[in-house]
From TrEMBL:
Alphabetical list of InterPro entries matching this protein: Peptidase_S1_PA, Peptidase_S1_PA_chymotrypsin, Peptidase_S1A, Trypsin_dom, TRYPSIN_HIS, TRYPSIN_SER
Name of the protein in question: Peptidase S1 domain-containing protein
One biological process term in Gene Ontology: proteolysis
GO cellular component: extracellular space
Residue ranges of domain Peptidase S1 in the record: 2-238
Listed SUPFAM superfamilies: Trypsin-like serine proteases
Species the sequence originates in: Trichoplax adhaerens
Keywords attached to this entry: Disulfide bond, Hydrolase, Protease, Serine protease
GO molecular function, one term: serine-type endopeptidase activity
Length: 240
């Protein structure tokens, strides 16, 4: 998936979700509670009536073999941010038709607090089953890569994105390129250690959203900034 990454240890990212449409893998997501998956709006059909064509796999590692830990659950409802436009507020939620069974191989990731700050240089992890190179083949096994958070000002430099990065986005990666998320990783998590959290506790800070090419120099990965859409996420989960 991840350009310049490594295969993830089996079930080491237990909130990683694989999204399927008509039985074809198409995007990633994160389990944020037993009934809800966080993903990118651009992964979801525009019409909520199309939820029935979607299902998720939890506890997944190898997409083409049975790991013995998978839970396959259909999707009962989908929600895209009402102000999703272009690349802004690229966030969506999927309600599962039944609660996931939480165990050592399937569990949830923390949502950030509104006040959480993830400063430039914070070492975070992105994961998914996307291409290993721009336009390349999809791997079968979950991959991950470690990437530092990049400041919005650096990401907006002329040689990077020249002002296209808004308050709804967060960047991560290396100026020299070489490590990035890629096609098929969309909707998956950019996770950072939970501020003041327990050891091995992770917070989903970004949602794989867009970028120019994959792992090109100065073209950092761009993620939906979860803190910027948190009030909407919490409202949907509380009311739907």
């Amino acid at each position: 998936k991840i350009v310049g990454g490594v295969e993830a240890k089996r079930n080491s990212i237990p909130w990683q979700v694989a999204l399927f449409k008509h039985n074809r893998f198409f995007c990633g997501g994160s389990l944020i509670n037993s009934r809800w998956v966080l993903t990118a709006a651009h992964c979801l059909p525009s019409s909520s009536s199309q939820a029935s064509s979607l299902h998720v796999r939890l506890g997944e590692h190898n997409l083409i073999s049975n790991d013995g830990s998978e839970q396959v659950i259909s999707v009962s409802a989908i929600y895209r941010h009402p102000q999703y436009s272009g690349l802004n507020r690229d966030v969506g939620l999927m309600k599962l038709s039944r609660p996931a069974t939480i165990n050592s191989k399937v569990s949830t990731v923390c949502l950030p607090q509104t006040t959480d700050n993830f400063p430039s240089g914070t070492s975070c992890v992105v994961s998914g089953w996307g291409s290993l190179s721009a336009g390349g083949i999809l791997p079968n096994k979950l991959r991950k890569a470690v990437k530092p958070i990049v400041s919005t000002s650096a990401c907006n430099r002329p040689q990077s994105y020249g002002g296209a990065i808004t308050q709804y986005m967060i960047c991560a990666g290396f100026q020299q390129g070489g490590i990035d998320a890629c096609q098929g990783d969309s909707g998956g998590p950019l996770m950072c250690p939970t501020p003041n959290g327990k050891p091995n506790q992770w917070t989903v800070v970004g949602i794989v959203s867009w970028g120019e090419g994959c792992a090109f120099p100065n073209k950092y990965g761009v993620y939906t900034r979860v803190t910027s859409v948190l009030s909407w996420v919490n409202k949907i989960i509380a009311t739907k």
